[in-house]
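User: Please predict the structure of the protein below. I'd like the answer in structure-token form so I can feed it into my own downstream comparison script.

Assistant: Understood. Taking the following sequence of 197 residues as input:
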Amino acid sequence: MRAIDVAVNGKLLWRLGIRNASIISPTVSAWVADDSPASLMVSGMCDLDERRAAHVHWCETWSLANGDLVAFKFIESDDVTPPKTIVPTDSPDYLEEQQSFAESLKDLVPERAPAVRKRPELAFECRLNGQPATIASLIRAEEHVLCSLLWIKQRPDRCDVSVRSFGDKSKPEHSPATEWLRTTLALNDDFSVRIAV
């Protein structure tokens, strides 16, 4: 099966893959006002019987420090890491969680002030197959940097990579966006992100 290796500072933490996977999507994200420089989330989806689906999570939040290196490799392997959770989209717990989330949004009043810029020099130093690819940083009023990988079953022989920075959409005057990189990994290609603040 198709899988994505995820290593932090040279240590392999997960080999992402699951039978009947429909999506595998690890992400590295950072917010200029967060307590930690960046975080890693590892999730996806799989197909179940009777045309049902489930969310799968290997890791919901892994805090990253300044200088940490997150490396991804797109591979073929049947020796994969089982997900920590598999949550069917029609399960009572999931439906209740979605309902609660929708209710919370009804009374949400967005904060209009810019975020406190704890890490204005925040940057992701990205490499593709060992070669420099881009350095994504915050421009003007941008507050977030995001690197996402996306494998979907409809395109099994590729894994898409996107690196971008953006502002808060709830604050129109603070919502610029910059696309730093959009590329595709073939089997055995690797991509890495070093956190720099």
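That's the full token string. The chain is about 10% helix and 55% strand.
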